[in-house]
Amino acid sequence: MANTKLSAPGGNPSDVERIKRESNYLRGTLAASMLEPISAGISDDDNRLMKFHGSYLQDDRDLRNERQKQKLEPAYQFMLRVRMPGGVAQPGQWLVMDELAQKYGNGTLKLTTRQTFQMHGILKWNMKKTIQSIHQSLLDTIAACGDVNRNVMCNPNPYQSDIHAEVYEWSKRLSNDLLPRTRAYHELWLDEEMVASTPEQDAYEPMYGPLYLPRKFKIGIAVPPSNDIDVFSQDLGFIAIVEDGKLAGFNVAIGGGMGMSHGDKETYPQVAKVIGYCKPDQIYDVAEKIITIQRDYGNRSQRKNARFKYTVDRLGLDNVKAELESRLGWSLETAKPYHFNDNGDRYGWVQGVGDKWHFTMFIQGGRIADYDGFQLMTGLREIAKVHTGDFRLTANQNLIVADVTPQKKEEITELLGRYGLIDVQQYSGLRRSSMACVALPTCGLAMAEAERYLPVLIDKIEGILDENGLRNEEITIRMTGCPNGCARHALSEIGFIGKAPGKYNMYLGAAFDGSRLSKMYRENIGEEEILRELGTLLPRYAKERESGEHFGDFVIRAGVIAATTDGTNFHD
Ligand code: SRM
Ligand code: SF4
């Protein structure tokens, strides 16, 4: 199988490789750890394996210092991420998530940047019950995290629902067929009886093998003209090509990713490159072979350089394409033309094909909760009780109440109005184009606030927008609490990455359609300086922009920042 011209980097395997190897296909000592009664936590090795089951052990960082003073162990709790390809949830599933969040979680739900639900704050003793209830609702958390293929994204664009329906089926199939085959999840959480493991069981994880992938792997399918799933940020992106109103096939793009480390130029965000075109029924083979290339040639020594984007950049795009075609036994066709308008969501009611209606609503930071004077969670629960269509979670942490019949539209509109969910126009174009990762208090890697702070910062930027007639201007703005890029900061026109409490690196110059990365404009600045910079740049944009020119393009044309033409010159 392996190509003699290509090779994986040398070096000792990272410790995570040992954990996977010794885990007996993702079992480890998790069963015992979860029953151990003294600590609310689990061992580091088991926590690594937990990811493959869709969960991370975290602690409430707001309580960390206080608990340390009291000589208590950290306030351990688990985050649980659901696998839900294409972000489609039935109303019954919505109600289950809502109930579990109240019963076992912290009373909120997070709609993630990869179109799924996360629950936070679940105690160890409640994990099994929670996963079992998710399973009963016909969802699961398998491979929602870990060194495997993750939740497959697809465009929920209600304007083209016939195409969406077809693309959604492909995303579901990819997600299901690329799952690990181990029964560890079923044994640990669903009480399936354990089958004795034998050496021949390598055959039982035929695609991944016993070591799984060197790192996480992400697939997304976009339906132009919307690039809401940020297809260029995916390890493997498919761009649907529609001909005569029918899905003809997909352009294939490889090697995207957002993560990097501060001050380490060997790590960088990268955009995926289009390498060709395939027919719909070839999509699975392409995905499988790309995954095996990453399995065989990815970096298992340095996790910071282990994503497929680094494999592609190290081996060369043409060599990876040649290897793919050799494994496929056939060649990709030449890529077809396509055009993206934007990477955001369009809000309000739209009528899709047929007589169905879809309502897209902005969810700030993707956080579903009841706030003082704004009963978002209650309102959505009431809608879920009467809704006969489905919910679609968007890749921008927003929500579509989809497939609403004309008969139901009035009732749903009334509920949207009653709970204050309808008037998205009250928000500025900037806020409607914003995204923030979870960050504090649950994310162990956060260096600064994101979800809790971006809305406050936007309140202040809105003053500048209003003074300059830019209130309705759609400018994408994203904030992450660290450089891992969970809110795809490097593909927003204004981006912030947390450096330290209250301090951010500021990035400018990404394309509005998600096709060009940003570049660092200012390092380690606080709110005052952020507002001073935007207080200069936004008025200039209002006065000097050309017709239809987006902010990300303007700052490049005006010489404010150089364009990043490839991830490899992101830091230049
Ligand atoms: Fe992420 C790790 C949250 C989308 C790149 N991400 C994490 C962890 C699990 C922190 C950890 O490892 O301890 C965060 C949990 C925080 C918490 O308290 O919930 C976390 N990532 C999220 C979510 C929930 C952000 C959100 O607010 O929506 C998103 C869940 C997606 C999902 O449903 O599967 C989320 N993460 C992303 C994305 C965006 C995407 O995939 O479209 C990226 C950038 C794209 C990419 O992967 O290149 C992303 N997350 C990372 C990385 C950096 C990976 C890298 O290549 O260096 C990490 C850290 C790691 O893997 O070591 C990370
Ligand atoms: Fe946590 Fe960093 Fe991801 Fe934000 S970007 S959720 S801080 S890992």
Automatic annotation (TrEMBL):
Q: Does the keyword Signal apply?
A: no
Report residues binding siroheme: C486
Q: Where does [4Fe-4S] cluster bind?
A: C437, C443, C482, C486
Q: Which cofactor does it need?
A: siroheme; [4Fe-4S] cluster
Which pathway or pathways does this protein act in? Sulfur metabolism; hydrogen sulfide biosynthesis; hydrogen sulfide from sulfite (NADPH route): step 1/1
GO molecular function per UniProt: 4 iron, 4 sulfur cluster binding; heme binding; metal ion binding; NADP binding; sulfite reductase (ferredoxin) activity; sulfite reductase (NADPH) activity
UniProt GO BP: cysteine biosynthetic process; hydrogen sulfide biosynthetic process; sulfate assimilation
Arranged from A to Z, the UniProt key words for this protein are: 4Fe-4S, Amino-acid biosynthesis, Cysteine biosynthesis, Heme, Iron, Iron-sulfur, Metal-binding, NADP, Oxidoreductase
The EC number on file is: 1.8.1.2
Q: Give the reactions, separated by semicolons, that this protein catalyses.
A: hydrogen sulfide + 3 NADP(+) + 3 H2O = sulfite + 3 NADPH + 4 H(+)
Q: Cite the InterPro entries for this sequence.
A: CysI, NiRdtase/SiRdtase_haem-b_fer, Nit/Sulf_reduc_fer-like_dom_sf, NO2/SO3_Rdtase_4Fe4S_dom, NO2/SO3_Rdtase_4Fe4S_prot, NO2/SO3_Rdtase_4Fe4S_sf, NO2/SO3_Rdtase_FeS/sirohaem_BS
Span of domain Nitrite/sulphite reductase 4Fe-4S: 170-331
What protein family does this chain belong to?
Belongs to the nitrite and sulfite reductase 4Fe-4S domain family.
Q: What does this protein do?
A: Component of the sulfite reductase complex that catalyzes the 6-electron reduction of sulfite to sulfide. This is one of several activities required for the biosynthesis of L-cysteine from sulfate.
Binding partners and assembly = Alpha(8)-beta(8). The alpha component is a flavoprotein, the beta component is a hemoprotein.
Q: What is this protein called?
A: Sulfite reductase [NADPH] hemoprotein beta-component
Please give the organism: Cohnella ginsengisoli
- What is this protein's gene name? cysI
